[in-house]
């Protein structure tokens, strides 16, 4: 899949795929199947505009949402056994919230790599909380498909470690 003519990526040259591979490498993800990551970055507006037989990243978002919740829940359960269930639930809810996912999206600069339609681009789609949060969930789904649960678990916890510590205390 080619695309990304309107992306705000770093001026590193190369194809969109090469830029995504470099970005993922910077995120410490050694890619096996680049296509699953491209799918995770494909907003449905772009898929519709380009007539790609896909719903974009929606299925990966669905998967990533569950994987993220499982990882955070499992980590809290195993590492903070003394916390009451209600406190763990509140911490998890905060960590998987759109607000937190949006902050993470900005930190990992996912907005530079999302494929959006021209219309969504003109409506400032790269700054929309929903698009960025959903893209992070889709990325987590892609990592899970490509690398398995152990790698995904470690990657997510590394990404969330400081936030977990802040919210447990």
Structure characterization notes:
With 169 residues, the protein is an all-alpha fold. It has eight helices and no strands. The longest helix is centred in the C-terminal third of the chain and has 40 residues, at 129-168. It starts with 15 loop residues before the first helix and ends with a helix. Mean pLDDT is 90; it is low at 1-12.
Salient structural properties:
mainly alpha; globular; 169 residues; disordered N terminus
Which regions have little confidence, pLDDT < 50, spanning 5+ residues?
Answer: 1-12
Largest sheet: none
Number of helices: 8
Order of helices and strands: HHHHHHHH
CA distance, first residue to last residue? 45 Å
Radius of gyration: 16 Å
What would you call the structural class?
A: mainly alpha
Percent of residues in beta strands? under 5%
Average of pLDDT: 90
What's the assembly state of these chains? Answer: single chain
Shape: globular
Let me know the number of strands: 0
In short:
This protein has 169 residues and is mainly alpha-helical. The chain has eight helices and no strands.
Could you give the topology of this structure?
Blueprint: H1 16-26, H2 34-40, H3 44-49, H4 58-79, H5 85-95, H6 98-108, H7 118-122, H8 129-168
């Amino acid at each position: 899949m080619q695309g990304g003519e309107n992306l705000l990526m770093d001026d590193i040259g190369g194809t969109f795929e090469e830029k995504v591979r470099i970005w993922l490498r910077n995120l410490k993800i050694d890619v096996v199947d680049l296509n699953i990551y491209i799918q995770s970055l494909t907003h449905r507006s772009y898929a519709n505009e380009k007539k790609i037989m896909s719903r974009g990243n929606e299925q990966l978002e669905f998967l990533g949402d569950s994987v993220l919740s499982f990882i955070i829940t499992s980590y809290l359960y195993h590492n903070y056994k003394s916390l009451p269930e209600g406190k763990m639930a509140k911490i998890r809810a905060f960590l998987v919230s759109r607000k937190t996912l949006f902050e993470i999206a900005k930190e990992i600069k996912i907005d530079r790599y999302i494929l959006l339609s021209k219309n969504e681009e003109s409506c400032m789609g790269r700054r929309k909380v929903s698009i960025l949060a959903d893209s992070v969930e889709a990325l987590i789904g892609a990592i899970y498909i490509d690398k398995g649960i152990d790698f995904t678990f470690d990657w997510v916890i590394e990404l969330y470690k400081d936030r977990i510590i802040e919210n447990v205390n």
